[in-house]
């Protein structure tokens, strides 16, 4: 018959889990609000930066986007003022700042790929990042349910 070879190390060694340093993941609670002009803002309270863009409803109404004009980084903007424009094969529409603050970044991909607004208006097609000067302006914008009701009525 066959003889089993004795294992040189104790059986408990195989059961030992490798030691790993504990890692803590910082959770970010982002929330999104909407305007009656069909812009969205996703706000990060940790950085006080809001990412803005146009909604899916707006991009469908515009049709194929062919040009996007964005504000320059560092520009101070006031809620409600025009900060750029979107042109499509059907129409042109101003982009309004949903909140006041300083433009921290713009989506430079839209210069070469304006169609990102049609393909991914709430992800890759974001327009600008604004450091809010007044967080209260974000809180008075429409929540998702209110925005959905607005769109259903149009």
UniProtKB/TrEMBL annotation:
Annotated compartments: Mitochondrion
Keyword set includes Ion transport: no
Modification N6-lipoyllysine, positions: 90
Pfam families named among the record's database cross-references: GCV_H
Keyword Transit peptide applies: yes
InterPro entries registered for this protein in UniProt: 2-oxoA_DH_lipoyl-BS, Biotin_lipoyl, GCV_H, GCV_H/Fam206, GCV_H_sub, Single_hybrid_motif
Entry GO terms, CC: glycine cleavage complex; mitochondrion
Keywords: Lipoyl, Mitochondrion, Transit peptide
Quaternary assembly: The glycine cleavage system is composed of four proteins: P, T, L and H.
Function in brief: The H protein shuttles the methylamine group of glycine from the P protein to the T protein.
Protein name (Swiss-Prot/TrEMBL): Glycine cleavage system H protein
Organism: Apiotrichum porosum
Lineage of producing organism: Eukaryota, Fungi, Dikarya, Basidiomycota, Agaricomycotina
């Amino acid at each position: 018959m066959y003889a089993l070879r004795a294992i040189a190390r104790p059986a408990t060694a195989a059961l030992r889990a490798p030691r790993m340093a504990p890692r803590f993941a910082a959770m970010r609670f982002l929330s999104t609000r909407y305007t009656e002009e069909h812009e969205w803002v996703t706000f990060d309270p940790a950085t006080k930066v809001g990412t803005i863009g146009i909604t899916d409803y707006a991009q469908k109404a515009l049709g194929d986007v062919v040009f996007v004009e964005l504000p320059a980084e560092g520009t101070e903007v006031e809620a409600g003022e025009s900060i750029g424009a979107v042109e499509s094969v059907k129409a042109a529409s101003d982009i309004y700042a949903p909140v006041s603050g300083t433009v921290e970044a713009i989506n430079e991909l839209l210069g070469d790929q304006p169609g990102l607004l049609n393909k991914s208006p709430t992800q890759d097609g974001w327009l600008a990042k604004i450091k809010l000067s007044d967080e209260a302006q974000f809180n008075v914008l429409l929540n998702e349910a209110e925005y959905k009701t607005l769109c259903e009525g149009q």
